[in-house]
Write a structure and sequence with these properties.
Elements: E1 18-23, H1 28-39, E2 44-45, E3 50-54, E4 57-61, E5 63-67, E6 73-78, E7 83-86, E8 112-116, H2 119-130, E9 137-142, H3 143-146, H4 149-159
Antiparallel strand pairs: 1-8, 1-9, 2-5, 3-4, 4-7, 5-6, 6-8
Amino acid sequence: MAKVKHIDALSQLKMNFSAVGVRSPLKDFELAYWLNVQYGMRLVCRPQPEDEWENDVIWEYNVFDGSDPFGEALCMVANLSSGAQTQAKEAWSLFDSVPEKHLLPSVKHWDYLLMVENADFAFDLEAVLKRNERITTAQYFEAHTQLTQRETHLLYEIRNL
């Protein structure tokens, strides 16, 4: 009888993309617009938010696709959920706040992540964003070094949809 070998289909894929973590008081659409105007990124919001399932809750995250000035694809994702759908019937209260969850708990100090193919552009973008008054801070990092394997796979899937 032949042995069955477990194959990790994603292990062969390039997942060492560059990322820039951004902290800003701007809403996601405001930041996308501003990045489009200032840096020509051509970010456009996806028609439907990306979903992540956890138990009986569906968490929604806004994603913006675009390209850098060199034509390379990039993607901006909000790290904090934009909404949640629950399966359970609950009464709504005026005093309830919208539940929130971080897409990437290991880097929850970032409001947004820009996933970039071109590491040089990402590194330069970090320096430019840090000098801007609308951005609290920004940091360049390689996703596979600071994120868990699950988070790296999740970003890879979001980026390639």
